[in-house]
Amino acid sequence: MINEKYKAMLSARSVIRELAEYAAARGEEIGYENVFDFSLGNPSVPVAEDYTKAVIDLHRNSDPVALHGYSPSLGNTEVRGIVADSLKRRFGLPYETKHIFMTSGAAGALAHALRAVTVPGDEVLVFAPFFSEYVPYINDTGAVLHMVGADEEHFQINWDALEREMNEKVMAVLINSPNNPSGVVYSEETLQRLSDFLRERQQEYGHDIFLISDEPYREIVFDGREVPYPSRYYDNTLSCYSFSKSLSLPGERIGYVAVQPKATDADIFAIMFGQISRGIGHNCPSSSVQQAVARVINETSDLSVYEENRNLLYDCLTGLGLSVEKPGGTFYIFPKAPGGDAVAFCNKAKDYDLILVPSDNFGVKGFFRMAYCLDTEKVKRSLPVLERFIRENDF
User: Fold this and answer.
1) Are 143 and 296 in contact (CB under 8 A)?
2) Burial label, 3 (beta-carbon count in 10 A; 0-12, 13-18, 19+)
3) Beta strand spans in the chain (E)
4) d(CA 232, CA 194)
5) Are strands 144-148 and 123-127 parallel, antiparallel or unpaired?
6) Cβ atoms within 10 A of the Cβ of 59, count?
7) pTM of the model
8) How far apart are CA 299 and CA 286, in angstroms?
9) Is the distance from CB of 70 to CB of 287 less than 8 angstroms?
10) I need a surface site. Which of 20, 31, 111, 116 has the fewest CB within 10 A?
């Protein structure tokens, strides 16, 4: 007998993936260059050149048995040390090898972090708008996702909603900054206030509350700003990172969890993660990819195109009278849908071969997401189409 739970999930597929598939099919009809596909957050800039050189050198000059053999269950020990040293230099926290666990991307990092700090029946708070895949990520652990309603003006934290949702069953709070889908970066003030709040609740409830920080867009920030690093503000923080966006390596599935060195049981988390891997099959990410990213640990791809694309879209959207918070990072923008019905708005946009994602699956209604990880030339060609779409329809 098959598992009915997963059979039922077939009727609730990712809206983003469905739209990307629609765009691909439409592209076969009219040419993909004529489809303005803002659905999928797939990096559009080439991988960092030094990463390619590192891969070539490893494959040419390393012992192939050692290079392609299983890595230790906690990740390549040398690589873990290199990650720890990089974080220590950047953020001034005393990370050591024992605080780093290598994973299959940020999804693998979250899978381990969530299981390490919850048991079935515990609650995990997430702040709307949030990446829709958090729902299966959390609920499939046996914990229960509870959403904190959005601050729809600036997409920082809605403090009144947080007060309402917080209770003794909450064992973890999941944040994502820079944020998918809004592009907003949590301010230092927001992180400090959240940290103070969680410390107070830890003391009140008499148990740890962990902050799980999902950080795949940490390096994609605009206007010369720096992203405040959550682990600096709150000791019980698990930082979940991926090289997918910073190095343009989404298909290589490589990332890590970094345990704040002052967290409760910080010295044994990585060992616990190794045990969790035995049950969920995320163990031993690619040995060669671990070694390659370690050689370029402080580099990124040329990410400047995303800021240029943001500026083009922000200026166009605001010029058309749409309300939108200016993204501080990522490659997403999250305008308010004219007329208020995001699903109807995005469905109508298909008539113009504009593929936009309605906000309903991100935990908030009335907005739409545009993933502008596209060639700038295509973004520029989309602007008159977007303008015509807005002008020709009475929303």
Assistant:
1) no
2) exposed
3) 36-37, 100-103, 123-127, 144-148, 170-176, 210-214, 237-242, 255-259, 332-333, 354-355, 357-358, 368-371
4) 12
5) parallel
6) 13
7) 0.95
8) 20
9) yes
10) 31
The separation between CA 104 and the C-alpha centre of its own chain, rounded to angstroms, equals 14
d(CA 289, CA 133): 25
**Hey, where are the domains in the chain?**
4-47+302-392, 69-295
In this structure, what token pair is assigned to residue 7? 């059979």
Contacts of 271 (CB under 8 A, 6+ apart): 74
Distance CA 173, CA 140 (A): 16
The Cα–Cα gap between 41 and 67 comes to 31
- Cβ burial, residue 326 (10 Å; 0-12/13-18/19+): middle
Contact yes or no for 105/242 (Cβ under 8 A)? yes
Q: Which fold has domain 69-295?
A: Aspartate Aminotransferase; domain 2 (3.40.640)
Fill in the amino acid letter for 50. Answer: D
Query: Could you identify the residue written with the tokens 């739209």?
Result: 19
| pLDDT in 10s for each residue of the chain, 395 residues | 788 777 777 766 678 889 889 889 998 999 999 999 999 899 999 999 999 999 999 999 999 998 999 999 999 999 999 999 999 999 999 999 999 999 999 999 999 999 999 999 999 999 999 999 999 999 999 999 999 999 999 999 999 999 999 999 999 999 999 999 999 999 999 999 999 999 999 999 999 999 999 999 999 999 998 899 999 999 999 999 999 999 999 999 999 999 999 999 999 999 999 999 998 887 789 999 999 999 999 999 999 999 999 999 999 999 999 999 999 999 999 999 999 999 999 999 999 999 999 999 999 999 999 999 999 999 999 999 999 999 999 87
- Give the architecture-level CATH label for domain 4-47+302-392: Alpha-Beta Complex (3.90)
Token look-up 């969890």 returns 257
Kindly give the interhelix angle for 269-280 and 105-117, rounded to the nearest 10 degrees. 110
Query: Could you identify the residue written with the tokens 């704040």?
Result: 260
SS3 267: helix
